[in-house]
């Protein structure tokens, strides 16, 4: 019997093509472009109804792009993960780091790319403290200047196929 696997997040999750990348798995892609942690928190009921065995979660870049502070984002992260862990079926939870951006290609004056490592350290601390698996994708996608490598993006924020293939390699054994 296949395990139910949920990918939850924003456009980076939505556009991952997870069903095509893992065709032999029962995957529900619950990524929605533009979603912030507040929006994800509001739409957890249908995610919980899927009763996932495993849940992969990434969010926060849109919050940073809206000018949210790391403590504000982490408050909602905790609420999201606690709600997921309290469902009738307790999924194994995998929490990704937030990916870097490349400000040469992507311009959002509210987004301070130097906040991403701070957010990632807070996410890791939270995941470790709560015994969830933290998957640090950030260093794999950065160039020598600590920006999202142009090898993995066209627009400085979203991934191209090479980026998604690298992501897939990091999680294959966990799926």
Q: Could you tell me the number of beta strands? A: 5
- Average of per-residue pLDDT values: 94
Rounded to an integer, what's the Rg over CA atoms? 15 Å
Q: Can you tell me the number of structural domains?
A: 1
Q: What is the CATH architecture annotation?
A: 3-Layer(aba) Sandwich
What is the general shape?
A: globular
Strand content: 5-15%
Low-confidence stretches: none
Biggest sheet descriptor = 5 strands, parallel
What report would you give on this structure?
It is a single chain. This protein has 175 residues and is an alpha/beta fold. It has one domain: SGNH hydrolase (Rossmann fold), CATH 3.40.50.1110. 41% of the residues lie in helices and 14% in strands. The chain is built from nine helices and five strands. Helix 6 runs parallel beside helix 7.
Give structural attributes.
175 residues, alpha/beta, Rossmann fold, five-stranded parallel beta sheet, 9 helices, 5 strands, globular
């Amino acid at each position: 019997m296949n395990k139910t696997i949920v990918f939850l997040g924003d456009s980076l999750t939505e556009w991952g093509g997870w069903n095509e990348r893992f065709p032999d798995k029962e995957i529900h892609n619950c990524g929605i472009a533009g979603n912030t942690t507040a929006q994800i928190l509001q739409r957890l009921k249908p995610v919980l109804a899927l009763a996932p065995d495993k849940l992969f979660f990434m969010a926060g870049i849109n919050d940073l792009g809206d000018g949210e502070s790391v403590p504000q984002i982490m408050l909602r992260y905790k609420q999201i993960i606690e709600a997921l862990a309290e469902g009738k079926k307790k999924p194994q939870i995998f929490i990704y780091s937030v990916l870097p951006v490349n400000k040469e290609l992507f311009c959002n004056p509210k987004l301070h790319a130097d906040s991403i490592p701070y957010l990632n350290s807070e996410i890791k601390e939270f995941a470790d403290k709560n015994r969830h698996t933290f998957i640090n994708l950030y260093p794999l996608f950065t160039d020598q200047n600590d920006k999202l490598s142009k090898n993995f993006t066209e627009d400085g924020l979203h991934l191209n196929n090479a980026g998604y293939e690298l992501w897939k390699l990091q999680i294959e054994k966990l799926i």
